[in-house]
Amino acid sequence: MELSLATRTVAEHTVLEVGGEVDVYTAPRLRERLIELVDAGARDVVVDLERVEFLDSTGLGVLVGALKRLRTAQGTFGLVCAKEPLLKIFRITALDQVFPIFPTVEAATERTGSGPAS
Amino acid sequence: MATVRLSFSPAPVHVRTARLVGVAVARRAGVDEGLLDEVRLAIGEACTRAVALHRQYGLADLVTVEMSDSGSYTVRVIDHAPIEASIGLTKLPPDELAAESLTEDALTTGVGFALLAGFVDDLQVRPVEDGPGTEVRMVWPVTRR
């Protein structure tokens, strides 16, 4: 499935819902969207990966780039992911120690606003 | 033994095709359904790496993916970039992953290798036998025929 991107606001957080396949071909669109959001002033960003069917190293690189960008801008960045295959990818790459990962959007918007992304 | 060989121009759009073919052949070969997500990811990572190297060196040569099912399911992804480009394939420690000094390309390369090493028990990265290039060889067990 092609990449899909949709933005909504939840409790003063910008939630980017990502769906489909995030790979070397589609990741540049995700990168552009995240840069647009930060440039437009979003500071508390949550990326919802629940509808992602495939995620590779290029997509992970884009997410780390967004985390760094928001850290520089004194913002927060969190991921929503409860799918075991995706969680395994974060564990294998040790990126589970880099990203705040939440099981639901509600949990992410409650907790990532409490301090700068780390 | 059955072999399927796919060659493609080094463009990101074709990596998905390689993944789809690789998983279809794996399923046909009898790789356990529970391993197919890992097969898909690993083939994608190996092809992404090959495409990135060809683009980095301005090579129009085709990237080749060869799949065979002789007792096990073996996938070879072959690039034609200078061999020294493969040096430095290392897994990054967690404290370096979000370091400001690490470029996105370097991070992607390190993470890609971590995924290959993490998902493929039988993984070899070696020079191709003739000419420049590297072969990433991945083997998965076949449970039914």
From TrEMBL, chain A:
Domain STAS: 3-112
Pfam families to which the protein is assigned, alphabetical: STAS
SUPFAM superfamilies: SpoIIaa-like (SSF52091)
Gene3D superfamilies in the cross-refs: STAS domain
GO MF annotation, one: anti-sigma factor antagonist activity
Keywords, alphabetical: Phosphoprotein
Similarity-based family: Belongs to the anti-sigma-factor antagonist family.
Role: Positive regulator of sigma-B activity. Non-phosphorylated RsbV binds to RsbW, preventing its association with sigma-B. When phosphorylated, releases RsbW, which is then free to complex with and inactivate sigma-B.
Name listed for the protein in its UniProt record: Anti-sigma factor antagonist
UniProtKB/TrEMBL annotation, chain B:
Name of the featured protein: Anti-sigma regulatory factor
Keywords assigned: Kinase, Serine/threonine-protein kinase, Transferase
One Pfam family matching this protein: HATPase_c_2
Claim: NAD is one of the keywords in the record: no
Keyword Transferase recorded: yes
Domain annotation Histidine kinase/HSP90-like ATPase: ranges: 8-140
